[in-house]
Amino acid sequence: MSSLQEIVKSKDIKLIIKNYFFLVVTQFGNYLIPFLLTPFIIRKIGAAQFGEISYFQNVVIYTTLFINFGFEYTATRLVARNQKNNEKLASVFFNTLLAKVFLLLISLGFTFVWFLSSNKLQNNMPLLLACWIINLGFVLYPGWFFQGMEQMKLTSLFNLAIKIAGAVAILLFLHPDNYLLIPVSFSVSQIAIGFIAFVVATQQYKFASAFKSFKFSFTSVLQNLRESLPIFITQLTNSTYLLGTFLIVAVFVSSEELGYFSGIQKFIYALLMLVQLPLNNALFPYVNRVSESNPAKGKTIVKKLMLGGIALGVLLAVFVYMFAPIIVDLFLNTKDGRVVLQMQTFSWLAAIMPLSGIVSYQGLYANYLDRYSSAISIVCALVACTFTFFTGNSLGVLSAIWGWIIAQWLDTFLTFVVLRRETFL
Q1: Alpha carbons 242 and 326: distance in angstroms, whole number
Q2: Domain for residue 395, yes or no?
Q3: Which domain holds residue 47?
Q4: Quick one: which of 103, 322, 338, 391 has the most CB atoms within 10 Å?
Q5: Residue 1 domain-assigned?
Q6: In terms of domains, do 169 and 32 share one?
Q7: Do 83 and 161 lie in a common domain?
Q8: Residues of the chain below pLDDT 70
Q9: What pLDDT is stored for residue 306 in this prediction?
Q10: Region class of 214: left (phi > 0), else alpha (psi between -120 and 50), else beta
Q11: How many domains does the chain have?
């Protein structure tokens, strides 16, 4: 049996590794810097004010999810398959941008209605606005385009530099009276990187001249939205069921237990964001491009990657299980055996996530089978929330953890069944 290295050309391997590295750099700026700032922020402004900011940021996350609408996969694969067709690239670029502007306006309308119906939002209008304007940066930021072109270096470095500058501003100037500096810093940083990346894309690929002959088509915008809808539903469902299991288990446990659980979740999420997501995003455009030109080779590559996903999952699981006591003591400042057990239980999730990412991103999404993903995610969400609801009283926090684990293993199994049914595997 041929090895993956024999199937994939050396130059392609180097490109994937390079893009993986710069995607890790991007994730470091997007997730790890805010995570590392958390203890400092809480000491400066207090847990209550930090909780208030977190609430509004979580509200805005759903509008951001709506605006991105799964384009990081559907638009990316269109770019990957047309890397040498500048006319088609320009069409994808502007149609996606217009679709995101359209979604921005809709989300603005929904936010305004929500604002009018919520006293909490009305009493904190400056905070809501400071958090919401980050969406302007996500509209402008064509990360999906550079990912599809497999050229992540420049935007990743700009992103890291600007996010570090925003973090330094918080470290130097934050005090209780100007807590708005936190969301303003995050929002301005994203708008800045979005603007810079937009300018780089239009200049480097000469889209400015192409825009003069570009003909706006609302039909094309709607087609973009239809193609992205299954992935958007999947992302929305996944975000909702994670929040849902958290809210369900909150009924059965104390605030202290919930706080430790939240800390464990953040660590596991950060670990997966730094390991799994960059890897799948680096592989995605290559696998999509190869599957288009040589389907048989694409299938072979995905099968090899699945073996790699299993191996990586075992390594991550062993790491989480073995180092759980140290991680809990270092990040959560406790030696409580129950909290350590919760962290160790998450090793079952770490074990399946790399394989789950491979079969979903490189199997379903890269081969235009994402129409199945939304149905699978809805089934898994219902399973997770139902399990947590009926076992929350007896298992406590572990009910939410096992709900997440069972849902992810089921998601992987159902995706594998779909791929087999479609004769992909």
Answers
A1: 25
A2: yes
A3: 9-216
A4: 103
A5: no
A6: yes
A7: yes
A8: 1-10, 47, 212, 424-425
A9: 94
A10: beta
A11: 2
